[in-house]
Design a protein that fits this description.
Helix content is 42%, strand content 19%. The chain is an alpha/beta fold. It has two domains: 3-125 and 309-326, ATPase, nucleotide binding domain (Nucleotidyltransferase, domain 5, 2-Layer Sandwich); 138-304, ATPase, nucleotide binding domain (Nucleotidyltransferase, domain 5, 2-Layer Sandwich). It binds 5'-O-[(R)-(carboxyoxy)(hydroxy)phosphoryl]adenosine and zinc ion.
Length: 345
């Protein structure tokens, strides 16, 4: 690694969904990572795309300014601008994309487009002074509000999706079931908190049985809905009285599905370095089950710090860094893309 690669400073911008974030990285180290989460969506029980893009517009200048300030930098210290070009909500992506393009153009800096899903995975390569890093090839279970994937990561540039959801994502299952229970949005963290007091074996919900290249969570959502409708018809207080046990049982089913499939794919691929990424990797049961799997099998498991689990610009910065050192640059005609086809061989 050259000295220039170690010292390169990248300003990174993330705006794919409902978090506006900016970060400054020096090489693989994070100097700042500022995240402004939009509260407005809580009132609506889900992300409202139009409101998200308006809030990004409002937030982006202050978020970028404070990322530079916290990193003790000005734009004159920055060597390149990295941004999320997709996948995500188009209106949200357009705000970050237009901002990054204008800023890089005005400052004559290289521009680097980053894939949000790959960035969740590369967050594991951020150097926060930890002793261990995953070794290539490793597997990453990426679980967020929009995605559920097991990805084989051969190196920072070569990734292959081995399993993917056919319908709802794991985070979406948490959110939709929480909504049915009247727990608010986003539901994942609330379910996680309530589940700590509950019995995970009280209500055995069915786990989907599919080939290892597929996940499905919409059946679980439907079976929870029908089960609750039946119980509430007999006792209107049922959800309120059994909240913790319902949450623990739902969480147990979702986490069980994720861990069982990851274990089988790891056995099949002969890969024993396992990572988890995306918003759902903040889930405490998923974290402890993954640790338990590692201990049982003697495998290496890697769980990112909370700040790098949910959407953040530090992960865009580390991805931008790898693109930068490979000499990859975006053209001024680069576009935001709601969907990006990647990782399928
Ligand atoms: O990666 P992310 O911040 O945004 C994208 O979807 O890209 O993930 C957000 C998702 C939401 O569905 C949220 O409910 C879920 O992550 N989540 C959790 C937890 N914290 C966030 N799900 C379960 N347990 C948690 N502790
Ligand atoms: Zn995400």
């Amino acid at each position: 690694m050259t000295q220039e690669e170690v010292n390169v400073k990248i300003l990174a911008i993330e705006s794919s969904c409902d978090d506006t974030s900016a970060a400054v990285l020096e090489g693989r180290k994070v100097l700042s990572n500022v995240i402004s989460s939009q509260k407005i969506h809580e009132e609506y029980g889900g992300v409202v795309p139009e409101l998200a893009s308006r809030a990004h517009q409002k937030n982006i200048v202050p978020v970028v300014s404070s990322a530079l300030k916290q990193a003790a930098c000005t734009m004159d210290d920055i060597h390149a601008v990295a941004f999320t070009s997709g996948p995500g909500l188009l209106g949200s992506l357009l705000v970050g994309t237009s901002f990054a393009k204008s800023l890089a153009f005005a400052k004559s800096l290289p521009l680097i487009d980053v894939n949000h899903m790959k960035a969740h995975i590369l967050a594991h390569l951020i150097d926060d002074g930890q002793e261990r890093f995953p070794e290539f090839p490793f597997l990453c279970l990426t679980v967020s509000g929009g995605h559920t994937q097991i990805v084989r990561v051969n190196d920072p540039y070569d990734m292959e999706i081995l399993s993917e959801t056919m319908d709802d994502a794991a985070g979406e299952a948490f959110d939709k079931i929480a909504k049915i229970m009247g727990l608010g949005y986003p539901g994942g963290p609330v379910v996680d908190r309530l589940a700590r007091e509950g019995d995970p074996s009280r209500f055995p919900f069915p786990e989907s049985k599919l080939d290892d290249d597929k996940f499905s969570f919409s059946g679980l959502k439907t079976s929870v809905l029908y089960f609750l409708q039946k119980e509430v018809a007999m006792d209107p207080e049922f959800v309120e009285k059994n909240k913790a046990d319902i949450c623990a049982s739902v969480q147990h089913t979702i986490v069980g599905t994720l861990i069982n499939k990851l274990e089988r794919v790891a056995e099949r691929e002969g890969i024993h370095d396992l990572c988890v990424a995306g918003g759902v990797s903040a889930n405490s049961a998923l974290r402890s089950e993954l640790q338990a799997l590692g201990e049982r099998k003697g495998w290496n498991v890697f769980v990112p710090p909370f700040a790098y689990c949910t959407d953040n610009a530090a992960m865009i910065g580390i991805s931008g860094y790898y693109e930068y050192i490979k000499g990859k640059r975006a053209g001024w005609n680069v576009l935001a893309q709601a969907r990006i086809d990647w990782g399928r061989k």
